[in-house]
Amino acid sequence: MAGLRERQKAKRNRSILTAASALFGQVGYEAARIDAIAEAAEVSVGTFYNYFENKADLLLAIVSMEVEEVLHQGESVVAAPPATAEAALFALISTYYDHSLVYLTKEMWRTAMALSIQHPETPFSRRYFELDAALAEQVTALLRGLQARGTIRRDADAAALGEVIFADLNAMFTGFTMDETMPLATLTGRMAAHVAALTGLLAPPLRTV
Amino acid sequence: MAGLRERQKAKRNRSILTAASALFGQVGYEAARIDAIAEAAEVSVGTFYNYFENKADLLLAIVSMEVEEVLHQGESVVAAPPATAEAALFALISTYYDHSLVYLTKEMWRTAMALSIQHPETPFSRRYFELDAALAEQVTALLRGLQARGTIRRDADAAALGEVIFADLNAMFTGFTMDETMPLATLTGRMAAHVAALTGLLAPPLRTV
DNA sequence: GAAAAAAATTGAACGCATTCATTTTTTCAG
DNA sequence: CTGAAAAAATGAATGCGTTCAATTTTTTTC
């Protein structure tokens, strides 16, 4: 029968998350007041806090959804990467970037990044960096695949380079979220330049190692 | 005569900054209450806000001091870099890392990074990224110097790689500040691994280009 | 050196996230 | 179906950064 209680709880959870998501989109995360979210979701402020630990918890729910989808899409790229190292890295990173504004605004991303850094002992931060690590792992997996097929030099440290590349794409993405006027194309263009610089170094020696 | 007003203002400014710095060190940035800082500095809360725009402004003053000193030390490394690319990069980055906890705690760094990301239109953020850019520029300058002297391949894109390396050392530093138990040696060790991976790619071709 | 003007100080008041004691609703035992 | 127990909902209270109107101190003017 799934109990009245269970059903109501699920409905309210959804209701709050929907209301919050809408408000974040309309007025921004910081400007969205808890009592406004509660009101839109037709619950009291106290009840809101029965469903979510705090305001950040709402954001985490949305970020998780976003990154999980992007990880899923990234898998396809890793499974069948384009011919050149440059194209392969570009494809994977573009996948990340292109998906980034589906559920979140730049301000929401900034807030998520800030919170994850500021309070490392928090479930928010743990989950955020878990997702980050999964993305970095995906970059490393791509590099390994390229090595296996001889597209890049086999003597390169794929794990270290995967981390380096992820740190870089992450930093560029941070820069993107910090400039409300920057279009996605600019981000992609900058990323392409860095990818070119790196893949230029990753070409295998002429006589295969 | 330097006017009574001027002198008092300077004294109070120092007094507040000293009190804040001490409290941040003792109880942490977040736990330090504005009224406690004001009390320790023997001013009212209202007066505090005549001297500093907000709590973050205090942090910015301390961060600026820190980074300016580190930039100064970095100059020496860039002016006379060690013999190998690996040693040179390691020396520069170690300089940054080794100085990092002189004025700031890990928590203060985290807060500074978080604030700089979260509120990009803020003087805090602008100044913080100005300092960041100066550090990245120093890495690029080092790479250029190494290229000029033939230590690393001349066909590498020094500007792009400087940014990549800075993004990476920054990400590793962020990780360091997020783990209260991580000693500096661990950070340095990880950085060494990444530097080795990168300089492995940067060796000039055997017949000079 | 007194009065007017300018600058700085002050603490009470405000906004907003979060907590908590109380009340209401739902479930369960008999 | 009833009453006790468990769970959830509620909104008033709290804590803390920041603002602001009123007061005090310093400087300037004559």
From TrEMBL, chains A, B:
<keyword id="KW-0804">Transcription</keyword>
<feature type="domain" description="HTH tetR-type">
    <location>
        <begin position="10"/>
        <end position="70"/>
    </location>
</feature>
<dbReference type="Pfam" id="PF00440">
    <property type="entry name" value="TetR_N"/>
</dbReference>
<protein>
    <submittedName>
        <fullName>TetR/AcrR family transcriptional regulator</fullName>
    </submittedName>
</protein>
<keyword id="KW-0805">Transcription regulation</keyword>
<dbReference type="InterPro" id="IPR001647">
    <property type="entry name" value="HTH_TetR"/>
</dbReference>
<dbReference type="InterPro" id="IPR036271">
    <property type="entry name" value="Tet_transcr_reg_TetR-rel_C_sf"/>
</dbReference>
<dbReference type="InterPro" id="IPR009057">
    <property type="entry name" value="Homeodomain-like_sf"/>
</dbReference>
<keyword id="KW-0238">DNA-binding</keyword>
<dbReference type="GO" id="GO:0000976">
    <property type="term" value="F:transcription cis-regulatory region binding"/>
</dbReference>
<dbReference type="GO" id="GO:0003700">
    <property type="term" value="F:DNA-binding transcription factor activity"/>
</dbReference>
<dbReference type="InterPro" id="IPR050109">
    <property type="entry name" value="HTH-type_TetR-like_transc_reg"/>
</dbReference>
<feature type="DNA-binding region" description="H-T-H motif">
    <location>
        <begin position="33"/>
        <end position="52"/>
    </location>
</feature>
